[in-house]
From TrEMBL, chain A:
Organism: Polioptila caerulea (Blue-grey gnatcatcher)
CDD domains, per the entry: ALDH_F3AB
A single BP term in Gene Ontology: aldehyde metabolic process
Name by which UniProt lists this protein: AL3B1 dehydrogenase
PANTHER family for the chain: ALDEHYDE DEHYDROGENASE (PTHR43570), ALDEHYDE DEHYDROGENASE FAMILY 3 MEMBER B1 (PTHR43570:SF2)
From TrEMBL, chain B:
UniProt signal peptide: none
Keywords: Coiled coil, Endoplasmic reticulum, Fatty acid metabolism, Lipid metabolism, Membrane, Microsome, NAD, Oxidoreductase, Phosphoprotein, Transmembrane, Transmembrane helix
Name assigned to this protein: Aldehyde dehydrogenase family 3 member A2
Organism: Polioptila caerulea
A single MF term (Gene Ontology): 3-chloroallyl aldehyde dehydrogenase activity
Family per similarity comment: Belongs to the aldehyde dehydrogenase family.
GO terms for biological process, alphabetical: aldehyde metabolic process; fatty acid metabolic process
Quaternary structure annotation from Swiss-Prot or TrEMBL: Homodimer.
GO cellular component: endoplasmic reticulum membrane
Entry-linked CDD domains: ALDH_F3AB
Cellular compartments annotated: Endoplasmic reticulum membrane; Microsome membrane
Residue ranges of every copy of the Aldehyde dehydrogenase domain listed in the record: 3-425
Amino acid sequence: NPYAGLVSHLRASWLSGKTRPMEYRVAQLEALGRFLDDKKQEILEATELDMGKPSFEAFFSEILLCKNELNVTLNNLCHWMKDEHVDKNLVMQLDSAFIRKDPYGVVLIIAPWNYPIHLFLVPLIGAIAAGNCAIIKPSEISKNTERLVAETLSCYLDRDFSVPLQDCFAVVTGGVPETTRLLENKFDYIFFTGSPSVGRIIMTAAAKHLTPVTLELGGKNPCYVSDTCDVTNVARRVAWGRFFNAGQTCIAPDYLLCTIEMQEKLMPALREAITEFFGSNPRESPDFGRIVSDKQFQRLRGLLGSGRVAIGGQTDEAERYIAPTVLADVLPSDPAMQEEIFGPILPIVVIANMDEAIDFINARPRPLALYAFSCDSKIVNQVLERTSSGGFCGNDTLMQVTLTSLPFGGIGNSGLGKYHGKFTFDTFSHHRGCLHRNMGLETLNTPRYPPYTQQKLGLLTTTFEVKRRGTCTLL
Amino acid sequence: MERMQQIVGRARAAFRSGRSRPLEFRIRQLKALERMVQEKEKEILAALKADLNKNGPDAYSHEILGVLRELVLAVEKLPSWAAPHPVKKDLLTMRDEAYIGYEPLGVVLVIGAWNYPFVLVMQPLIGAIAAGNAVVVKPSEVSENTARLVAELLPQYLDKDLYTVVTGGVPETTELLTQRFDHILYTGNTAVGRIVMTAAAKHLTPVTLELGGKSPCYIDKDCDLAVACRRITWGKYMNCGQTCIAPDYILCHPSIQSKVVENIKATLKEFYGEDVKSSPDYGRIVNQRHFKRVKSLLEGQKIAHGGETDEASCFIAPTILTDVSPESKVMEEEIFGPVLPIVTVKSVEEAIEFINLREKPLALYVFSNKKQLIRRVIAETSSGGMTANDVIMHSVIPELPFGGVGHSGMGAYHGRFSFETFSHRRACLIKDLRWEVVNKLRYPPGSMEMMHL
């Protein structure tokens, strides 16, 4: 077990209690802020090398959103850490009942390649805020970012110069074999972002040690566009969400559902939006990304045969460039509708009406995100109420995850658990029910002790019952 | 396989019909459950007596009172629990609607245990119904009379397709676990907990596992020993020690060990009289297998009190062991019986170290007059839940989450935590199709000026 030493080293640090005091947690979080400030340029460069991530996008998702999470956490940590006192019944008025937030211990964070800083850093913020030690396993596919994290993160975290070794946090690099070996160890929590198939493997490995997990997975996020809508704005918002990071976003609108009339109206609007965003030749735009690997590129190119290419379709293997593409008249049986696309391709599936769209969505695994566009708020609400998904956004895409007060997570195949803001802190804390009783007033306890009698039972019932509130009659 | 597929399929079709979603429907079901508990009280108490030799007032207070309380709470609070929860918005979302919606998960599975066979299926069932799900209930086959009764009664009071009871043992449960559920709540032991989670992983099903372990009980020299020992005696020997949050073993200074034994002996006489075996308030071990298991823990131990057994009636007297070695068998596994080992420690530091070297327990107890010491024990240990200066009682407060950590489990329920366990919290952001000018800030082409905004 090649990682046993590392894990037991972190566990020893955990048992020393080092990561628990608020001052320690605040110091680590502030250090993460400095990491983002100092290494901003390196992060923009590494993600550009990894997937041609435009600087503007990288700044938004890898720096800005992460700093927001840091600030929300630093602003509220004191409050989140406090014991939550709860209501008590009559008999316990002199007692103290509260929920204590205990750290779990040594946690494992496994991050994917598409937002390689954000998707380990935001969970790490919560893990540290909750008082844990952590092992971070960045993705080997975004190898420049992986190297940056492995080489520089340790310079910021746990800088106790009197202790030569990094002992509360560690970065482990490698691919599938290394992750498999790492998972042989016992962790107190595992946070995984990636595909559903790997999610199953992670949860099965976690089950051996009864380790609780959060799995942020994926799926095909449907985007319904009703006949009553402002086509120009819809096209912009959908195009933005679809083509951000060249489509490699777990919450991107995966496919569009609309009537044949709407498809016809949308097409010129989408074409216009794409031109507005990326110019007449997106390949030359500094604001459009590339596909992360040859394997992904080949996979995506294979999807272009679905339906007919209405916009884009151009590819360049050497650059791993796929143009912002819209496919029209795509059939449910087409390749583009069999898997999560995770690329700059937007298939349009034609349906007759909203009911058909809802049935189409509900016949498929529950997605991470669901989008509905309409000028009629009743339609947006109907789609919301009659479907199920991790999260939902009406009349826009992606934005539901930028609000730190909303939980971010999937359901069914798209995942379990949630995070962002306080939800990350709660994810990495054990909520411990605590009751601190008075040693006196022992006579109040008499009804519960044997010998059991009906009279004692009557007393118990009176003191412990939750009485239904009576209806108030004015007459 | 087919039978389980059919059962789950029927529940899923019933869920898809949408009829469990309106709050009025859920409240009707909960009120029907309340009627069931009130009308069938005699039958329920008879089943509990047959399974565990629990007598009337004992069984009522431990199994029925809690269920009725939970039902009243759920009916009253459901509208507020289920209401969409608006969240704080930021500059970009100021004009939008942002809230968390509580939605049912779908078809959930509740697997009960035999030691409190009625309440351990009913309490999760209440939360699952309140949250709008279809529910498959699998009571423990070890408490067969209660299982049979639950299977008979639920269809008489509740929607038959939405809420089903499956009876049977290991083969039936294994088959059931191959089906896809949207949440599984399992109460039982650690070994089976692993099996349940592994089966759930195949379908990416979230789980709540209410397991067990050895719940330590530290008695400080500075405390009212008489009161402490009375409370401990009550929690340890109720249900003949077969309680997942019973104080499993005692840690105390050697100088008070004999006083602890004396106090517990005195309390036992107070509770059960001179002849425990003939007290109607003292239970029995649930079956021969567990009887033999608990009896074998006494081998080689110093028995300070009790130790008598009677295989024919699965009777084991309330027993106290002194000067127990940490390496002995009785200190290895959860006792789940009326045997109370005392392990001596020289200080609270030693007690904390002892506790932390072991798996995290479901419950932890500390008795002391010193607030500082209690705070220290809480801060330096971890456990599912805990009570200071008493035992068991943290589990009767519905506002406290009840669950384990580490080997003692994951997730929690009781009160609103049951509702949340069986709900999906869906993030909802509803924007306007107008006000596009605000969005222009985020669209390409990007520029350095935009980045500094």
